[in-house]
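Per reviewer request, we include the raw input and output of the structure prediction for the construct analysed in the revised manuscript.
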Amino acid sequence: MSKAGTRIALLTPAGVSIRLAVASASLASGVCIVTAGLLWLSEGPDRFAGLAILSAFWLPYLLIAFRVRGEEKIKSGLTLAVAMGSALFVPGLALIYYVHEWHESWWIQGTLVLALLLQPILVMAAIRAYKSLPAEPQDPSKAAVSGAYGVLLFGLFWFTALFGNFPSPTTYDESQAMESMRSVYMTAESYANAHSGFFPDASIDSATREKVECTNDRPRMYHHDEEHGYIIDYQVVPAKKPVAGCRVAVSYTAAARPAHYGKTGRRSFFVDQTKVIRFTSEDRAATAEDPELPASSLPRL
């Protein structure tokens, strides 16, 4: 392809308009991704580190806008535009669903929706611009490089979604409830080791008088405390007499039940001094008669 032929194709009113459409859609897409990333990570200390990781997704859009302005690399820019717009459309739909499910702000959701709507515009404009240019021998290699990058991003997104930390709200709530059950028996065990084998007495109403130091010594346990969509209850069988002047318990049970079954959780959990976490998928509180929770289901420490 001669440079003169390329220049003629690019400088026609139609060529200028279509290049402007590609550059604008690409630049807007990159800005949307950066904005959504900053808003999403606004409360975290590592938002700029997260934005740097996301550069694999937003930086190519800026590169596209830069390349379509010139003549030398315009085709590589157009093929990259097609690859980016095609590869990230379906992941974009999944990401919007995920963000909506977590009830993120409408600013984040709206920004991602705008970025998604820009992708078909970007792809169609880039294809139209590409077809208006004369063919040259290196076209297949340029298209292959851009296509390979698009496939890489597509695979990277789904690999991260499947094996990364992208739980649904229900899964996250259940994970937190299981972690609470584990925290209960670990805390109770630690307390028992320091108090002659007795467990913390978390009774709210008690006529038993005890030393002031006992309150500070007793760990915080759970009692009808709704956290992460679960109601957690800690019950004890109090000892008949204080130990070292402190109220203690001879046994305990802890239960975690979804605040809204099916929405904030689909399983209820139970643990006692046996340190075995049990569960049920029925809409009721778990008991000591329910099956043991597999160790593989517990969140990693």
